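User: I'm curious what two different proteins look like when written out as structure tokens. Can you demonstrate?

Assistant: Sure. I'll show them one after the other, since each token string lines up with its own sequence. Here's the first protein:
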Amino acid sequence: MDLSIIIVTHNSQKYILDCLNSITKVARGIQHEFLIIDNKSTDQTKVLIKQFMNSLTLIENIENLGFAKAVNMGLERGPGEFIILINPDVIIQSDSLQPMVEFMRSNRKVGICGCKLLNQDGSLQYSKGSFPSLFGTLYRMVSPRQIRKYQ
């Protein structure tokens, strides 16, 4: 298995099918699996996921365990050589998965890889920050939210 795709959902019916369809389109040629961990959705999220395809694993939590615990549940079950964590509102618009897998295979010293994220209007979405330091952490604790947002 090349790629385990982990998606954590909670009341994501508005987004989940677009997300799954976009991944399916760009994952052709990559042996992959979907691991979807649902944090007790009360909308139609689970119904839509079950109707999507048979080749996915849906883990239904009986309570909302939070994002981190749900991700860990997916990591425990993901046998893929590589793991990608995708939020249910993400739509992959280009063939970026294959180049990422090839990059990771040819750069064994690299432990994590990300791609460019775009907002719905096509503008750049910031997804990184500086490596944390004591001064930087203290500064962010006292800074107004508008300043902290992109640090």
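Here's a second, unrelated protein for contrast:
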Amino acid sequence: SGKKIESKTTIFDTINFDWWKQHNDPYLEGYIITALEKNYDIKTAKLKIEQAGLAVQAQKADSMPQVSIGASPILGKFPDSTKSQGSFAMPVIASWELDLFLKNYDKTKAQKSLLKGTIYQSEALNIAIVSQVAAAYYNIVKLDKIIEIQEKLTKDREDIYSLKKIANKEGLCSTNDLILAQKAYILSNNDLLDLKKTRQNALNALAVLIGDSANNTKEYERISFDSLSDDFTIPAEISSEVIINRPDYKAIEKQLEASGIDVRVAKKEFLPTINILGLMTFIASSGSSFNWSDAFSLLGGSANLPLFTGFKRVANLKLKKNKYEQVLNDYQKTNLIAIQEINDSLFNLKTDKQKLLNNKKAFEIQKKDYGYSQTKFKLGTISKLDLLQEKEALLYTQQLLINAKTDCFIDRISLYKTTGARL
């Protein structure tokens, strides 16, 4: 049953793969599919579902009659006899605990609830892993663009430093200004190295998420940052029904249900157990074979009620009630956290979208300023050094725009995750 539940179609439906297709990014879709197939946490979650399914089968088996067969060879010498005499017995024993008070039924029901909870936990994990894959992917795409801009900044810093050296030789620039230009060039190189290191770490993290070796990260393809569209709508509000449909919420709900059943079972431990026992034994002495006249059979029943067990049953009942209270607190906490996460994600998305619009305006203004500076440079009214400094300001503004745009994508992924993939 576990394999049927975790079919590829069901997994794709769980993560709302159609939502990811709307991004029109085949590279991202490929990484998501690979993660669903090869991520080791997801593989472990599938094994846990199988384990929970086997626990249900084991509990069902405890509710069924138990039959066993044995073999008992005997060799003995009786009084007033000089010879040993052997016999061979083959007992067949059948026993069944009559579930008059539905205790075993409740135990099976609790295991089924835990199985459903495990399935929901797996669905929540799928959504979380897909969200991590997408967040890592978009950060890598962003870093590609940031590194491209940082390389331009570093080249401009190098050109500025070269111009400062020439100006210093001609006495038009102080040694202090020259040193500052050199320092800026060196620091820009360091920033470039840090960015490349961060990108490689992000690629390595993506490799782990998709179950791949970090040695293959050079082959990882991705979309260009300029191709990313930020033309997406933001919901004005999120329905409260989204919370109760979140897989993690459903998982804790099933755990609470199972814990409640455990309390009921602990109460039923104070009731008597009723057992039916059947016994049939074939006994053959030396030199004879089994026949019906050698059979011995017995059918009976018993009702057992432990009078004193050292208060074990009382302690067990209190233990189950304590666990139920813990799970109930976790259930209520999950509800509050879900509301907080959705509100935070929605507010962050709205705020960062406004920041993105502001940065777009600032970038357009800076582009106009740089255009004016280019005109002035052609007319000879400003120096090349002034033009490079204006270009540097434009590149910095572009970096702010890139970061703001990426923040919006990360916020959307966060909202996707907190709504249980139901955007």
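A detail about the second structure: Residues 259 and 323 are 7 Å apart (CA to CA).
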